[in-house]
Amino acid sequence: MKVVGIVGSTRRGGNTEILTQVALDVIQKKGIETELITLAGKRIAPCDGCRGCVKTGKCHIKDDFDSVFAKMKKADGIILATPVYYGAATPQIVGLISRFYSTDRPLRRKVGGPIVVARRAGHNFTLAQLMFFFMIHEMIVPGSSYWNIAFGRQKGDVLKDKEGIATIKNFARNMVWLLEKTHAKPTGVS
User: Fold this and answer.
1) How far apart are CA 190 and CA 187, in angstroms?
2) What per-residue confidence (pLDDT) applies to 105?
3) pTM check: above 0.90
């Protein structure tokens, strides 16, 4: 099994990447392969609504989407993480999820969940924004002891949010549990 954590921040090594790595570390310690993918430095344009993908099954935009998309399709679990920019997810993560317009549900029944980092506010809407993506793609989202959010402004500040760290670790443990359940071989089922 494999879980990819996709960080939608433009800042490498920032709070969102730190928090995503916390989750991936918990998952990896449970014996599941992980990969951190950062969208920083990648060019992923948003969907332009041409609807060409409906006819051809492929997007005409040539950028970094296909490489990230391929890793998401192969993964068993997906974490989408973003800092809050003006009360919403970053343009990078929104561009990524908008390109799933006509992808024939390749993420169906995969396990996934969001992680959001806020300086002060906007995390609830941003969390919902990412949850809508998981729901419309028929993914299974584990819960945690609170919403998957943490606070931080300066690089590393997120590590001071003890409740946020605990929430993300619990989310990661629940993700492992759910992955194990969804990948168990059925016995005695006809």
Assistant:
1) 9
2) 83
3) yes
